[in-house]
Amino acid sequence: MKTIGLIGGMSWESTAVYYRLLNEQVRERLGGLHSAKCIVYSVDFAQIERLQTAGRWDEAGDVLADAARSLQAAGADLLLICTNTMHKVADQVAAAVGIPLLHLADASAAAVRTAGLRRVGLLGTAFTMEQDFYRDRLAGHGLTVLVPDVDDRAVVHKVIYEELCLGIVREESRAAYAEVISRLVASGAQGIILGCTEIELLIGPEHSPVPVFATTRLHAEAAVTAALAPGQ
């Protein structure tokens, strides 16, 4: 089994879910007392959030690149960035190390295509919904990506940073997200990508009339598959 390196803490609420999912996946596939070989580097999210808001992405990328180098030095064989938004600096992080970085959008797109869908709605932070880095990666897999309108994007972003990243789950916010999803479906979305690792704390399949693609789970499953694959 290869060792999975996790760049986490963005936020730690979802990093904890990653840890649980990795171990559940390994136990499910190998049985018995097997658990995942993994190393976690958890950053201070307050620092990252300040850099995001200021648009200082290169500096944020430096922080994550340092984390990646530390994980490689500690023995990680592959890397995960445990947040959709910070995949904006994925290339910068990948260039800092000599081990593979498993891109979250690739795992999500593969699941959408396996389901036979091509037109998806994307929920996430404002950075993920409004900038090209994530949508273009999905489009590169042949997907058409829809995002909420400006007011709905503001609601989705606010709930992530002011509630979910703090471990707060409110029924009112779940209802608001369900309305956003309904509007995306009305616009033609055949499925919904939960493109922020915290959203899975709030939204599940039962809250959407079309399939939802839980990026944290999909990323964890891809990591375990890579960790258990034979060869280098």
UniProtKB/TrEMBL annotation:
Which domain of life does the protein's organism represent? Bacteria
Which Gene Ontology molecular-function terms are recorded? amino-acid racemase activity
| Family annotation (InterPro entries) | Asp/Glu/hydantoin_racemase, Asp/Glu_race, Asp_race
Q: Which UniProt keywords apply?
A: Isomerase
Entry's family note = Belongs to the aspartate/glutamate racemases family.
Protein's name according to its UniProt entry: Aspartate/glutamate racemase family protein
Q: Which organism is it from?
A: Streptomyces kasugaensis
